[in-house]
Amino acid sequence: MGVPYVPIVGLVGTDLLKRRDDMIIAVDPFDGKTKSVVAKALRPDVAVFHAQAADRQGNVSCGYEADVVILAEASKHVIVTVERVVDQLTEKEAKGAFIPAIHVDALVHAPFGAHPGGCAGIYAPDKVHMREYVVASKDDASFEAYLRKYVREVKDHQQYIEQFVPPEMRKPTLAVVS
Amino acid sequence: MDYTTSELLAVLLSREVRDDEISACGALSQIPAAGLLLAQAMHAPNAELIILGSIFNPFRTSRQFHYLAQRGELGLFFASGVQIDRHGNYNLHQLGPDIARPQMRFPGGYGGGMIYYGARRTVVFRTEHTVRSLVEHVDYISAAGSTPPDVLRHGNPSKAITPKANFRFEKDAGVLRLDTVHPGYTLDDIRDSTGFDLGVNGAVTVTPAPTAEELQVLRQVIRTKMIDTGTYAEWARKSLGAMM
Predict the structure, then answer these.
(1) B54-94 pLDDT, tens per residue?
(2) What is the pTM of this model?
(3) How far is CA B146 from the centre of its chain?
């Protein structure tokens, strides 16, 4: 990725297309007549995502969440939080998709960094917390209370894990495909 | 024979699946998932199935599925929407007359507006057949039934299926027309609960009811398969075979 735009079969005639100024209908430059939508490529300044493991050079194993490979390729800077830091990780050792260190600017060791979401193969989404999040997001006041409890009043990541990641989630679980 | 709405829809959807084709449904699609598995067990043993969010998915990434549809290799897709209109448009996004001020917002995003053009056939289904769900014009077009002839498009809507009737999409006219009425309903029932002209004059055929075999396979083989593979297991336990 990092190309200027991407053609798409679809979206013509939708209200989604009407409301997006980064997608237009264009003529195929080769046959000069067939029309399709082209979407302006996203070129994020910074991408931040969580992955299963990485080495100290920044080679990342991202398991089933392989769509982050495109995100890493498209972004100018990439910060990856990981469950596990290992000495050396090559494409051969990667479980699932692999992002070479050349794309990665910074690495953060953050076990349970995906919580309350899941990290495929390591832990499943925390459904109880997710329900609480959905309820809290209904209005500004309840969401503010959620942010206070889980973000603003938490000293650091270690405290978050101890307080909010359920102990049963901290045991190794079977692979979870999400 | 008694059956639930979910069982009826699963059977009707299964009949749309063709052998030797790739057929798929999205995430949060328990009825189509049951329909796909039923078709494979009944008449389409060589059908390739993709049930997103389950183990019945050969892909690791949504990009891989996206480009399968972009290439026109997807034979059939099952979609649903909060509204379906006479022109074959469906709405997965929002309700309300003013697009800028939705009265209700749904999770609809980009996927439907891509697959509707990429899949060779799309069957739109809806679990509610009322004047608010089957309308003349949807409040928001998430995917359009028709496009101008110079627009690249691999496929078109094929049918709309509800608990009361089947509609077929006529590509040249760009409209849905009533095809068959399910057992237990009259043409007047359909007219009263549909927000658009049915496009029929005279009698219409009755949809063949789910057969004993279809129901038995659905309630036993498919129910077990869904539970064992964690494919909408809770739903399958509750919804399939409840009337046995």
Answers:
(1) 999 998 788 899 999 999 999 999 999 999 999 999 999 99
(2) 0.88
(3) 17
Residue B1's CB: how many other CB atoms inside 10 A?
A: 9
Question: Which structural domains are found in chain B, ordered by start?
Answer: 5-239 (3.40.1080.10)
Q: Is A135 helix (H, G, I), strand (E, B) or coil?
A: helix
Contact residues on chain B for A69, CB-CB shorter than 8 A: 61
Q: Which residues is A54 bridged to in the sheet?
A: A60, A85
Q: Say how many C-beta atoms besides its own lie within 10 A of residue A26's C-beta.
A: 13
Distance CA(B111)–CA(B143), nearest Å, equals 9
Q: Are B34 and B10 in contact (CB under 8 A)?
A: yes
Q: What ipTM does this complex have?
A: 0.90
CB contact under 8 A, B151 and A19: no
Q: Which residues of chain B from 92 to 151 reach within 8 Å of chain A, CB to CB?
A: 93, 99, 110, 113-118, 140-144, 146-148, 150-151
Q: Which amino acid is at A59?
A: N
* Helix extents (H) in chain A: 15-18, 68-74, 127-136, 140-147, 157-164
Distance CA B17, CA B39 (A): 6
Taking an 8 Å cut-off on Cβ atoms, the answer to whether A12 and B61 are in contact is no
Amino acid at site B50: I
Pick the closest to residue A148 from A136, A157, A138 (CA basis).
A136
Q: How far is it, in rounded angstroms, from Cα B124 to Cα B162?
A: 9
